[in-house]
Amino acid sequence: MTAVDALNLLVSAVLLAGVYAAMSVGMTIIYGVMKIVNLAHAGFLMLGAYIVFELYTRFWIDPLLGILIEFPVFFLMGIAIHWLMIRRIPQSDTPTLASLLLLFGLWLVLQNLGYLIWGNSDRAILTPRTLSTLQVGPILLPTERLVVFGVAIASLAALELVLRRTWFGRAVRVLMQNSDSGRLVGVNVERTARLAFGVGVAFAGAAGGLLAMLYPFTPDFGGSFLLRAFVIIVLGGLESFAGVAVGALILALVETFSILAIPAGYQPAVSFSLLVLALVVLPEGIAGLWNKRQRWT
What we know:
Number of domains: 1
Order of helices and strands: HHHHEEHHHHHHHH
Shape: globular
Largest sheet: 2 strands, antiparallel
Structural class: mainly alpha
Radius of gyration: 19 Å
């Protein structure tokens, strides 16, 4: 492998990391505020992909505009799901069996709904950008991946701005650090949790649309990306937004460079192996390792 090939692989990994971070941040928000592992995340990824597909094929709405349209739709869907189901789960500082079973069941419902509506054939979103490339010196940049990366980074930047500058963001950060302290200072826990669940679902739907611009998909589409999201948030430390970015970059680098030695069909095995390694070696994630270093110094 030449230096140019290695550089192109590195750039591909960075572009992929942006999408992976946007895909995983919704799970981080929900877990941080509510201590719930959103297994239905995979179903929302799948549904987001199909909605963007339908908007493009039926109404010729550009997928990027389709993602903007579906974001508020998924936000309202998340709020409705929280009001109808999630708020009835007993509150706990750790994920409960009831929450896991409920959200796993919701994932299965969404998946079978996908089979009922769209069948099991592969779908793909092909736009004029799909096969175009941009040459920057020796680096070859696929236009679609570059655009998707830009949208993902812009969405993460907007989320960071909301978390830093709004009452909702302050409430989320307080509850992620200590929910009891949040109650003591007057945070409306149920309202914040409902909005956080809506934001998490909205990011999942938008990420599904972004991923659909890069990969073919079926109603099973979300499962493999759910595993990747688990790897990323475990690497990042479950409740760390900065850790999500680092975890996404690590996973993208491992997956991208592993194709030099392992066939692409074995990438889910690579993700699973990385998840096991992270749980054994870094159970608190990179954020926990950083916090320990800060305490030592």
